[in-house]
Sequence to fold (184 residues):
Amino acid sequence: MYLRWKFFYYRDCFEGTPPDEIYKGLAKAIKCEELEPLSMTNIKMEAYTFSILDLMAKAKLSMMDNDNEFYEVIELMDAIIPYNSNGFYYKLIYELFKWKCKCRVSIKEIIEYKRKNKKVHEGMVHSEGLHIDAALSFYLNEIGMVKQARKLLLSVRDNGFTTGIVNQYLNSTNTLNYEGDNGK
Fold:
């Protein structure tokens, strides 16, 4: 009965409650021994156990703060219901969010690199750094800045840097523009 009440309480206030509070409150409720880590041998197996783990996974997905804790919850969900679609979904979204965060970090690194390294680099892929501009364009594309990425990449190409990767990205943005124009 206790886990049922906890589940409905946190489910109903999920949008208005900080995700760390939800995660900690549910972890405390579901553990047999509060100070021990989450594991199959340290959770209360009741009717609402899976549902509570599901909310914990959603809270961790919102926070994106601890890979180990997130994957522990997913593993427990899979142990209770093997190949469950919720755990699979959360894992896919978590990995996508991690990729988007990594892309943003890389964009900052590229901009900082370009700011500090303005000299000509003989013997590199492109001596004036157009390959770095192309890489910036690829990352902009990955975080959804498709128009800006395309504009930069067209400039890179028009200034003489054309590779298979450049053409592949330009073709993919052509496809996106084409689909967008036709409402697909």
Remarks:
- The two ends are 48 Å apart (CA to CA).
- The CA atoms of residues 156 and 162 lie 8 Å apart.
- Residues 2-93 form one domain.
